[in-house]
Specification:
Strand 9 and strand 10 form a beta hairpin. The protein has 2 helices and 15 strands. Strands 1, 3, 6, 8, 11, 12, 13 and 15 form an 8-stranded antiparallel sheet that branches. A 5-stranded antiparallel sheet has the order 2-7-14-9-10, with no helix packed on it. It is mainly beta. The chain folds into 2 domains: 38 residues; 184 residues, Sandwich (Jelly Rolls), CATH 2.60.120. The N terminus and C terminus are likely disordered.
Length: 224
């Protein structure tokens, strides 16, 4: 009977965990999604093709932003289902001569704001400097843009700072942009994203979990 009790408790704990629902995904291979606005455009993934983790690699096209500092690419989602938190994932490419925070000229920053709050400010040392985002690096080589510098890419789906962010609103805005006094833009420095995904996580209300507990205990009593 103790074993059965433990199984019921574990089952109820599973019900109480977040239930993820994908509310947006684009690999940009079918064109620009309506939810994506602002600066940037579709380009081939070029030498990034195949880079990534199993089931999450660069393919076809990506979305590249080579604009000046603070020029944003914006994803806007509306009519989200009820949820308690959101998680964001994407592949991020640092293209051409990024100079980190201590190269020349520097600093160069990639930023992600969520509903107006900055959640990520990252850099790479492609051309100079030595500070590099310490994430899940999936590519380092000549991907085929300017050609003078090697390019670097990361899987941001493994970045804890943008997983399970408390959020309950029915709308969500993601802003992707570059910044920094060393930012040169154009063919000199740019960034790109691919496989952009947004997931909302819903945790059952306490009352629902309590009801499940009562049903589980009742089932145990009937079996005694």
């Amino acid at each position: 009977m103790k074993t059965l009790s433990a199984l019921v408790v574990l089952s109820l704990a599973g019900f109480a965990q977040a239930q993820p629902t994908q509310v947006f995904y684009s690999n940009f291979d079918s064109g620009q999604p309506a939810e994506l606005t602002g600066y940037g455009g579709l380009e081939s993934v070029a030498g990034f093709a195949g880079a990534g983790n199993t089931g999450d690699t660069f393919t076809g096209d990506l979305w590249r932003n080579d604009g000046t500092a603070s020029v944003k690419t914006t994803l806007t989602l509306t009519n989200l289902p009820a949820h308690n938190s959101v998680s964001v994932g994407f592949l991020l490419a640092f293209i051409d001569s990024w100079d980190s925070t201590n190269g020349s000229p520097a600093p160069d920053w990639f930023n992600l704001d969520i509903d107006g709050t900055n959640f990520l400010q990252l850099t790479s040392a492609n051309a100079s400097g030595n500070v590099i985002y310490a994430g899940d690096q999936i590519y380092w080589g000549g991907a085929g843009w300017n050609g003078a510098w090697w390019d670097r890419a990361f899987d941001m789906g493994n970045e804890a700072l943008i997983q399970s962010i408390p959020h309950t609103a029915s709308t969500l805005t993601l802003d992707f942009y570059a910044s920094g006094d060393g930012w040169q833009a154009g063919i000199d420095e740019s960034f790109a994203i691919d496989n952009l995904e947004v997931i909302v996580n819903k945790v059952p209300a306490p009352g629902a979990v309590g009801a499940l507990s009562i049903l589980g205990l009742a089932a145990l009593r009937r079996r005694r």
